[in-house]
Amino acid sequence: MHCPANGEAKFVAVTLNWDDAVPPSAVHQIGVVQEDKQFFLSVCLAPLWGGSPKWLMLIEFIEYYLLQGAEHFFIYRQTVDALTQTVLDSYTKRGLLEVIDVTEETKCLKKHRCRHEMQLQDCVFRARGRSKWVATVDLDERIAVNSGKTLTEYVRTTGEESRGELRFRCRWVLRLDEIPTSPSSWRSEGAHTPMAVWHNTSHVAPVNHTTKSIIQPEKVCLFVAPHKAAASVTSFQAKVEGMSVHQVLRFSPGADVFLVPSEEAVVRHYRYTQGWAFFLKEAETFGEFEETTVTSTLAKTLENNVHQAVDHLFPEETSS
User: Fold this and answer.
1) Where is the signal peptide (predicted)?
2) Which one, of 71, 198, 186, lies nearest residue 135 by Cα?
């Protein structure tokens, strides 16, 4: 990762080696936004890409985390269809999220993984000074507190100042079908939200196995290494060891991680099983599957909010 290791960061880029030159086409710009207040909890969403339908999962994702107390969203966009773009435009106009474009270009062999890593570093920089805590999650992941508290309430009581990361263990909720491709097909199939349909849940994964995090971005450490080809002492690149997909790689001095007990909260990963047979076999080694859900009050409120959002964004056509 190459970018200045301070609050003046201007870009993020992914290269094969730390001292490779970064062509302009591979640079991901970071636009610093100054706001009047600092958010307490924000959410960074992994890059949206690929051809699978995302419009409904995205609405549910945003509405779920709003109910959890999130105040702002950083949504990373690589490729989206028209329906998903309509969703993004609507929530952007409401001032709830900002959309950050992710470049298509990368020399990495595992292209999506590299873009995800870049997005996470961008999230750390972008949220600094703007949000006290930030959840770093995927579109099909819901961090859920078992007591019925919201995430904001849980973080306020658990997120001590020295804790740079709250690390949550994962449970997979098996999603056997893809979401409907359009609002009309969704309505014709019963208008069910994903979280209301899928409940077959794996045992909790082992400690530090595919965990997800809520971090204090100010606590993520950045290590500076001089660029070998620097023309002067003021010209350098920074080797950033900040976030990985599943945990913080390095903390600022004095910060640490809190391993959240699974009895208190977990990540509910609504994993679409097609093409993931190897994952399912691994998940079976964790223990017995069981039917689980979020609290009935949360489930009912969420489903109502999703329905309202869909009806607002995509009104049902009526025959004259």
Assistant:
1) none
2) 71
